[in-house]
TrEMBL record, chains A, B, C, D:
Pfam families: GFO_IDH_MocA, GFO_IDH_MocA_C3
Coiled-coil segments on the chain, per record: none
GFO/IDH/MocA-like oxidoreductase domain span: 146-278
Source species: Jingyaoa shaoxingensis
Domain Gfo/Idh/MocA-like oxidoreductase N-terminal: 7-137
Protein's UniProt name: Gfo/Idh/MocA family oxidoreductase
InterPro entries per record: Gfo/Idh/MocA-like_OxRdtase_N, Gfo/Idh/MocA_oxidoreduct, GFO_IDH_MocA-like_dom, NAD(P)-bd_dom_sf
Length: 383, 383, 383, 383
């Protein structure tokens, strides 16, 4: 019998109507190589059943608890190869740990967990059990972000001397001053420490800046000096962060959820001694590259002059926007490729091109350092 | 037993590696409401088998010819509800006719067919048999195109007085002067009259302009005055077209496959007595709306101020690009909703929001009028 | 005594408050090489006197008629070297002819005149008398338009295969349907045949498209097929024009004064076999250049990689917008350089880099052909 | 005898070929209300003479030293009304002081001077002598910056909650690592503490951010936490600055001269509880305004919906870029209006709309606080 070509996966969370669960399912569907066969979509029995029926999950593989699911699936010969965890943030740690301990590969929404200790524990278990563990930091999945990484690695912009990145949104602007009656359930959730941990804005989107910059440049914050703004809420809605990387270079990150007119404004600009690159998430199929003393160049995804990873992860012809879901699919592509190799008996020594549990831990450390600095008069704080 | 909630569909064409087949499958997958259960992916047995295995099609529902498939599926109690036709253009007519005659709903890639007679015949059969028939003119599926349509209908820009639309690409630039050794297979195919009919550029992309403008404005070309450029090839690579609509308003369409730097540059601008709208396919989540004497307004998909069809067909939060595949999914959404109603015994009297066989016929008529005008010294030619 | 370094000039028209007179004066002032010493600013004595005093014109050189001015100035030893004509369009011909016959160099606002015969007569007189004659088609004065011309001439985009240019404005949108009570004096003037000649929109702005494209490409329309829209007014407010150049290449021009949101939207796109260029007047310091199969390039005015005419006519550092007045100044620069050479006794055999009376004549011919074609069912009409 | 309508001015610095002198002369020329009648263009006799001849300065008013000029002009009945100081930065203080003491109004290039004490002394003298003193912070002269100020003042964006501004250039990128052989004279000058004071980048461009934000918002930095990068040079080439304003709101400023592809990238974004505004210097005729929960709005200079100061300082029709020189002219407009009132005997009690010596002092204080913070481990430092 030859190697398997398709994977079986399960989902925890993601009942009908839940946003992020649909993103994960659709991203996996775009890859066309894995089938959803088991789930615990919701702790509410009715919702769980309704969703299971809609997706045609066999009754004996629709579970009322994730513990039960992990146990039963790991016992089956045709059990799931990996689980997608799309539950509320506060539960990621417990759910992920349970599946890892059951010997099942894990893809988990970000943030990985709330404390550095939790993150390092998950990292350790995955390592010991040789399990793949993806944390779905979406934006590194975009083809043009991959191109950016390769251009930097190839020395196209020389030595990096400056980083300027931001992630601006406006969906919590009504929380300014302590919130109001139009507050949505989601915004309540985001700004509740019990559900979001020690940070709202930095934890939700600031960490994407950190991850995307680290992916492109290979540079990690060594220390940060930050000022957070809560505007009367319990958690931060806005943050400005000075960064010093491990190589001594400085940068600045800004993230906010109160900037009117900015919807999902992740913008990453890397400046080097020989040139610069700029990527704007809202127009993700372009990359602006300027070599010192030359005209700006606008690279377009899917064209003949683009090679390497950005070309490999190209799905539709140039000029036809791929959008977020393909970026997500690219992350699953790398993860599922690794899982498939494990399933077929030759687990990779080195992870493929996707964010892993280690990146998740780095994110948690970053959040903690930023919050600590802000509480301590913005002094430089080690990450 | 209640109404069915999911559909079964089959595919003709779309073997592994074929571009447009994957787009259709992925678009349907994004909708999460239909399952691929039967297919004739390729006339080449090996390719057909390989693709069928990859997608887990049961052996008895993987057919070696579309005629056989139509016959067998229409005979099954659990036969397919609709077929997606993603074969080469020259075969659309025959395949579509076969499935219609077998009583199966049809979704067909554009162009619908080569002659006006063929198109009208298909239209007639579908009508007589009360079958749904979608022609997948992609661009009307975009949320912001739907918003444009609603703004125009609501009189937001007053009476339309001018239309300026273009669709510029550059992928056939090397055909100028008669082609060269780097000519790709696809370009050979596009510029071969046997495979592309009487027109290449107008047939492939000019017709999208016509369809998108008609969708937004409800205005149809009454006559055209056109000049086509072949640059030494058998078929056109470039076209400029003066248009007079049924209401006497004039417009101009330009389409080209030799405009360096333009990848998939469909741009539609509608000018009215009270304002204007502009939509650019390469940045599809925006719509520029200018009311007379006021600042330009940039609408963003997915925001709270967007209502109606554009809000209903919103899939991911504002600021996260949806991309082409969701536009395609939106077309299937409308079509599949109609099909599901038919399946459940209450066929709609009026089609939902997607391009139908009638739009496909309009496209064929437009192509013929444009080609005729160009051959006849650009005189005004009735559509 | 050495050569003169400064010029003396006079102005006809341009009383205080008149827009275009100020543009000419300021453009000349930016050049810092000519002094305004004589004028007939207005036929209204009070206005003439007030303006003369403001600008410190000597009383004996402030004239009540242009005929008197031409006569007196040509008789003085220190008479003006050239005259700037900024009177209403209907008078350009008479005024220009008068000064030419008095042996004075002429810079005249566009359009040069109303009939082809008038234009050719002016051209003939200037030629016979070896007088310089600039027609201030503004847009060829922009540095990046000069760069475009040089890139085309250097073969950077190969052989030109397609031209797509437009000039869209919205300031006459309220004239649709026959005008209304808010009609401004200027719009009344523009749409009155007695004051604007046979065309409003094509004459006012369409002719700029023609001139700018001709400047960049060296290609002149051989014939045109046009449709004009008057929307109930006596003259055109909108035009779409198919063009065939002398080398057989086709293009399309659109001009309009009823396109909401477009203020002064001159956009020129030239497509060649090896690449393309695009220039947008509202952001004039950039030039988009795309070589076939390469990323788009955005050239910025004033940078080190820009050489030739665009570098010579650079006034302020890159990144600091120069604006329209410098474009105008560049036109005067070329003209005044020629005039200064004449004054110093060595008139140039070939005109410098600015639009001359011959370009003015070409513009008048273009307008006539476009209007004729539109009146004659859009048939192709020789220019 | 009535009031005077024109002013007489003198210039110190600005010999032929000097960049900033030409900007000042041209800006004044655009205003058309003042005449250059006296100067000390250069300390080099030949250069001074040549420039004086070119501009037709009377021989007895072309001075070999600014001290002599101040003395002689203040003694003349027809002496200059104001002086424009366009000398190297290190001399501003001495020259300005000399003319103030001679009772002559002053317009001075920024930075005003090097030390806070110098600045406050100049401020004091001007105040005592009732002399007008403009410091030409260019960017507040732009019409759309004036509109921004008025929209903020009118409460259109609610209470300001966040500021994000940057000024990125790339012209000193070759200084990274200590400079190299292609170093230009200007860059040597900029990075020499003797000629530039304690800061290069913050002093040259960071101070423009501070001034422009203060102009728009009325908010002044109370303290700053900054990190400067010298990259091996004596002075800073890059800076990231956390800001706390007097009202407790936070912001972030970034300035750099090593960001490839950024030419003169001043971008100011002000975020309020009800909306936001964004202004980009390289496209200065636009202002992006987003009200909470509404589409973005793009305001265009010169349109009918723009009123107030932005409309008053409009020079050419909408859609025709005005550029930097008009912004500069607007500053001189306000200053010269005040000077003219003084000249006519009714000095204004409150300065008009232009940056004064007080703004110059604020700039010097800002620079000092930023440099101090950076030297002191980025701790928050009072301005």
């Amino acid at each position: 019998m030859g190697d398997r070509k398709r994977l079986r996966y399960g989902m925890v969370g993601g009942g009908l109507g839940a946003f992020i669960g649909a993103v994960h399912r659709r991203a996996i569907a775009l890859e066309e190589t894995a089938d959803l066969v088991a789930a615990c979509f919701s702790s509410r029995e009715e919702k769980n059943k309704e969703t299971g029926e809609f997706y045609g999950i066999a009754q004996d593989r629709l579970y009322s608890s994730y513990e039960e699911m992990a146990k039963a699936e790991s016992a089956r010969e045709d059990g799931i190869d990996f689980v997608s965890i799309v539950t509320p943030n506060a539960t990621h740690y417990e759910v992920a740990k349970t599946f890892l301990e059951a010997g099942i590969h894990v893809a988990c929404e970000k943030p990985l967990c709330f404390t550095i200790e939790q993150g390092e524990e998950l990292e350790q278990i995955a390592k010991e059990k040789h399990l793949m563990f993806a944390v779905t930091y979406t934006y590194t999945g975009y083809a043009m972000v991959k191109l950016a990484k390769e251009l930097v690695a190839a020395g196209e912009i020389g030595n990096i001397v400056n980083v300027n990145a931001e992630y601006l949104q406006d969906w919590l602007i009504d929380e300014i001053g302590g919130g109001n009656q139009t507050t949505t359930k989601m915004s309540v959730w985001r700004t509740d420490p019990a559900k979001s941990g020690i940070s709202n804005c930095v934890g939700d989107i600031g960490t994407h800046i950190e991850d995307t910059v680290a992916y492109i440049t290979g540079m990690h914050p060594k220390k940060v000096a930050a000022v957070l703004d809560n505007y009367g809420m319990d958690l931060d809605l806005n943050a400005n962060i000075l960064v010093e990387y491990d190589n001594g270079v400085h940068g600045v990150y800004s993230c906010s959820q109160v900037c009117a007119g900015h919807l999902n404004g992740l913008v990453v600009r890397i400046f080097g001694s020989e040139g610069s690159i700029e990527w704007v998430q809202e127009e993700p199929d372009y990359l602006k590259v300027t070599k010192k003393g030359q005209p700006d160049q606008i690279y377009h995804r899917g064209t003949g002059y683009i090679t390497g990873m950005a070309a490999e992860r190209n799905h539709i012809p140039s000029g036809h926007p791929e959008g977020l879901t393909f970026a997500f699919a690219n992350i699953y592509h790398g993860f599922m490729k690794d899982v498939l190799e494990c399933v077929n008996g030759h687990c990779p020594e080195k992870n493929g091109d996707y964010p892993t549990v280690s990146d998740g831990v780095a994110g948690v450390k970053f959040i903690h350092a930023v919050v600590d600095s802000s509480k301590n008069a913005s002094v430089w704080t080690e990450v």
